[in-house]
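Field notebook, page 244. I keep forgetting to write these up properly, so this time I am using the form the group agreed on. The chain and the ligand, zinc ion, are recorded exactly as supplied. Prediction of the bound pose follows.
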Amino acid sequence: MKQLRLHWKKVFGALALGLVLLMVAGWQLSRSRDYQLLGEIVPRVDIDKKLVALTFDDGPTPGFTEEILTTLKTHQVPATFFVTGKDLAKHPELGKKIVRAGHELGNHSFSHKRMVFTPYDKVRQELEATEDLIKQAGQNEPIFFRPPYTKKLFNLPLYLWLNQVVSITTDVEPDSYPEVAASADNIADYVAAEVQPGSIVLLHVMYPSRATSMAAVPGIIQKLRQQGYEFVTVRDLLAERQRA
Ligand SMILES: [Zn+2]
């Protein structure tokens, strides 16, 4: 009897350990910048040419959108904006302004919720509703996708794969580190140090709390140009792969 109880203890112990390992693996998988179960995910394009893509997440929000568009125009830099459907539905004119200025709009979901255990139908609604709004703003296909919080697990990659939508993540994300994000100078220095040919830089500039990121943009442009970098949209960066 005692032996049997010991045996079960071992089995339960092994099962519990297995479950914990599975949860850790699932969590790592859900937050990965360069791996998803199905479909293509791109944190950086592997090229030698000194091209870099600036990408801005969330919004479009009034005021901040005009401000970043003015900065980009002053410096003649094209960029990619991963916008949410909920904000684009509120401010369709801002989406049009972004496209008209020669920038690219990408899909950042409708509600900006983490899509880890989201049912397939909900994933489809989130992406399709936003894609419709992006097309109405004048953006042509292909429209790239960036998962909110970089989160995904099963249904989101399945949808992306079935619909041949490419996930764009990042290899340089200064405002994910509070000590870097604390000042515009730190952000610009960090980006200048971390960027490689084909890098995809992620910045948040659509909120009052991200004033340092907004203020860092001219410095980032100046420093990267000094290093010989040229700015392109995500679409043009991906097109470079065929040429390489
Ligand atoms: Zn976001």
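OBSERVATIONS:
- The chain is about 50% helix and 10% strand.
- Residues 1-31 form one domain.
FOLLOW-UP: compare against the apo run.
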